[in-house]
Design brief:
It contains 18 helices and no strands. Helix 8 crosses helix 17. About 75% of the residues lie in helices and about 0% in strands. It is an all-alpha fold. The longest helix has about 40 residues. The structure holds aspartic acid. Aspartic acid binds next to helix 16 and helix 17.
Length: about 425
């Protein structure tokens, strides 16, 4: 957030909270979330069942994430397709590899979640109190009703005036930062629209620690530590599934390309570490490309297709995570997902992962679509907020590994000529 010079002239009473806010903002998100979990546990133990009201911030966050999801997916896909410069036979092979890898990721995720069943580590329980819609509405719930459920909702028939204002204020403020951006082409228009959504998403991310505090306090206060035992199981299950997906990538590289898996890991460790530390595969993209070209020696065309073009569509870690989350929450609620529903989970996870922009927490936004598709209560995504800071990093590293995998497979089994020369040169010199 930016402040004008006049702001600093205000009274010291106004300056004090600003100082606290800036200090708070300077902490990395994961530390803020860990702090919120600790405070949330204490508050939950202290307030007991009365902590149920503290669900409000997390419900608000999820409501807004749900509203951002459809346009974010729409614009991310439109932009990726518009900018992709591909054609010919390799494009077909690229599309095939992307779909295959994503389906493998989702299958691994569902398999691990079915075997470990982390959601059944505790007794199945009814949805949280905040979800009951039949009770008399308190003022907070009435306020929540005016937060749009979908960005397009307030513009369609029956949208309330308050939700239109909500939308107008959010975009008005987000677009202030972009108002000098030149709009010459359709590409600019899509980029500005996407950028304004990302700005709003960052505001929501800033509120996540508060939402975590509230949801942790209300869960501990109302139902004790049970859900968190299950959540621990879920984290383990996701990490196992991601590790299996990584193994799958390396085995495919071993059999399908000239690159040795160990050389690939060594040559691209900067990209993998960056993905883990930034939680953004888009921010990592240039490093991924440079590592592939300079350290591994992949041909330019393959590196471009896999790490630059494919990366926009290729988020296997996200797909795996979304499918596992849906199954986890279904298990937690004692629900059986029918074959049809599991198919819907697969389908929407594919779409959601393609539309998940390569930025932190994007998977959490698009997950609301997967939950809605199979009628799972999106309120339960709130419990995942507590661990998402860590799982986001892990799945982002796998997203980047997917790009590496596709680049190597596109490069084929024959090393590029300059590589062959480099490999044979020392032998020739010795002779
Ligand atoms: N953070 C992930 C990425 O940048 C997307 C996600 O949230 O799943 O690839």
């Amino acid at each position: 957030m930016q402040f004008s010079p006049e702001d600093s002239d205000r009274s010291s009473a106004a300056a004090a909270p600003l100082g606290f806010w800036q200090r708070w903002q300077s902490w990395p998100l994961y530390l803020r979330i860990v702090g919120a979990v600790v405070i949330g546990v204490l508050v939950g133990l202290l307030l007991g069942e009365r902590a149920a009201v503290l669900q409000l911030p997390s419900r608000l966050v999820l409501r807004i994430l749900g509203a951002l999801a459809p346009p974010l997916i729409l614009l991310a896909i439109v932009q990726a397709l518009m900018r992709a410069e591909i054609g010919g036979r390799k494009a077909g092979r690229l599309a095939f590899l992307l779909v295959l890898n994503t389906l493998v990721a989702i299958s691994i995720g569902l398999l691990v979640a079915n075997v470990i069943q982390p959601g059944r580590w505790v007794e199945a329980q009814p949805p949280p109190a905040g979800e009951k819609t039949e009770q008399a509405k308190d003022p907070l719930s009435m306020f929540l009703d005016n937060v749009p459920k979908s960005i397009f909702g307030p513009l369609s028939d029956g949208g309330s005036v308050l939700s239109v204002i909500f939308l107008a204020v959010s975009f008005g403020i987000a677009l202030r930062r972009l108002r000098h951006h030149h709009l010459n082409t359709v590409d600019d228009l899509v980029a500005v629209a996407l950028q304004s959504l990302v700005i709003i998403l960052h505001w929501i991310i800033d509120v996540i620690p508060l939402a975590v505090l509230g949801i942790v306090a209300s869960i501990i206060g109302v139902s004790g530590f049970g859900d968190f035992v299950a959540l621990g199981g879920f984290v383990i299950a996701v990490l196992i599934a991601l590790a299996l997906q990584a193994t799958y990538y390396l085995v495919r590289v071993y059999f399908g390309s000239w690159v040795r898996p160990w050389d690939l890991l060594r040559g691209t460790r900067d990209a993998l570490v960056m993905a883990f530390s930034t939680s953004s595969s888009t921010a990592t993209m240039p490093v991924t490309y440079a590592c592939l070209r300079e350290n591994v020696g992949i041909r330019e065309e393959s590196a471009t297709m896999g790490a630059l073009v494919g990366a926009n569509f290729n988020n296997d870690g996200t797909a795996l995570y979304e499918a596992m989350s849906a199954l986890f929450v279904a298990q937690l609620l004692g629900m059986e997902l029918s074959i049809g529903q599991q198919f819907m989970v697969v389908l929407t996870s594919v779409v959601a992962s393609v539309g998940a922009a390569g930025i932190p927490e994007a998977g959490l936004v698009t997950m609301t679509l997967v939950f809605n598709a199979v009628d799972l209560p999106v309120e339960y995504i709130a419990i995942l907020l507590t661990v998402d800071w860590f799982l986001d990093r892990s799945r982002t590293a796998i997203n980047v590994m997917g790009d590496l995998n596709v680049s190597c497979l596109l490069d084929g089994k024959v090393p590029p000529p300059e590589r062959l020369v480099a490999e044979t040169l020392p032998a020739a010199e010795n002779a």
